[in-house]
Amino acid sequence: MNQAESRHSYCWVILGILFFSQVVLSLGAYAWGPLGPYIKESLSLTSVQFGSLTSTLYLTSVMVSIPAGMSVDRWGVKPTLLLCMMLMGISMISASFCGSYLPLIILLAFAGASYGMINPLASKGLTLWFDVNFRATAFGIRQMGVTAGGAIAGVLLIYLAQLRSWNLAVLVIGLLAILIAVATFFFYKESPDKDSDVSVSAKKTQKKVSLVDLLKNRNLILVCLLMSLLCLGQSSIGAFLVLYLKEHLGFPALLAGTFLTITMILGGLGRVVWGIVSDRAFNGRRLPVMRIICVLATISSLSACLWTQDIPKYLFAIIVALFGLSYLGFQGVAVVLMVEACDPELAGRATGFGVTIAWVGMVLGPVIYGAILTFGYPVSWLFVTITSVVGLLLSLAIHETRSVDIAD
């Protein structure tokens, strides 16, 4: 087997490691909602204290994104991934023995730091291992680990908590993270391109690149702003879809929850499907796919804005399907577009930089949606619609500078 064939076969091992790393890290991030009733009662937490657990985790995730990107560019994917999984493992195992609020929230801050490292390092690893004709698909598969982790958390962790206690559920997450760290140590390899002449040259250039240089990258900034706008819609849907269906359209609670589940499932599938469409139908181009996603997002949120109780409830399944494919399914292609706006050797810090901007949308979305809600749900959905329209306009201003023309 020559080097090219060996590389092609081993890239699937790399993708598998990064996918399961994402699943376990997402378990750690999404655990606190399903385990909420058990933790709140066990530790006698107030609602504010309980809410601060998740907020702390996501806050430290955002804080470490840029440093994590710089670290993976400097030290490589493998050592950074080892640190990431060990940090999550130790944090979760320690958290499983907590009996009070203060030590738990401190440990979740460390777990959040671990969660914030995965996007930069996974983007760097996949960029180096996968060529342009399969890269978006690989990114989409890895991103599907986010929704897979969330789905597993809603079933496995509740089962373990009912079987024994929330402590057991958290302990299992920690042990799984350690297991992934062991697999990383033995099976993860840096890309053969890492030591090529091109990479060496790029690394020399990389030393001169700072965050100021990233800020001067017009395409990168526009892509990050586009992601942030779609993230506004994503987080608003996650926070308010069930309430909207129950309070505004009169859906039964079970049906509203089912529609949210459909949204999540199709969001995960969308991350893979859009990657395949980008790689195959558009020959590695990302912008046409992002524009299609923005159009679908606009149609879905505008439909929610105009929807009434007189329309049969089952037809809203079409809208939640579009929610999933657009607002929740865009990340895979968007991250590839963001990474390809820079030199491949800068993929780590570019992703960390971009995720930081994008997560501003994640944080602000529910707050703005909730504030506008005083004027009614249709006005809040109109706000979401406007964000997707602005995102579409931004996409028209982006120039795809990657070397796709060579592939053509």
Structure commentary:
The model is unreliable at 195-207 and 403-408 (pLDDT under 50). The protein is an all-alpha fold. The protein folds into 2 domains: 3-195, Growth Hormone, Chain: A; 211-407, MFS general substrate transporter like domains (Growth Hormone, Chain: A, Up-down Bundle). The radius of gyration is 21 Å and the shape is globular. The chain is built from 17 helices and no strands.
Overview in brief:
With 408 residues, the protein is an all-alpha fold. The protein is 81% helix and 0% strand.
Please name the defining characteristics of this protein:
single chain, 408 residues, mainly alpha, Growth Hormone, Chain: A, 2 domains, 17 helices, disordered C terminus
The low-pLDDT segments are 195-207, 403-408
Classified in CATH, the superfamily of the largest domain is: MFS general substrate transporter like domains
Rounded average pLDDT: 84
Q: How do the SSEs run, as a string of H and E?
A: HHHHHHHHHHHHHHHHH
Summarize the amount of helix as a percent range. over 70%
Strand content: under 5%
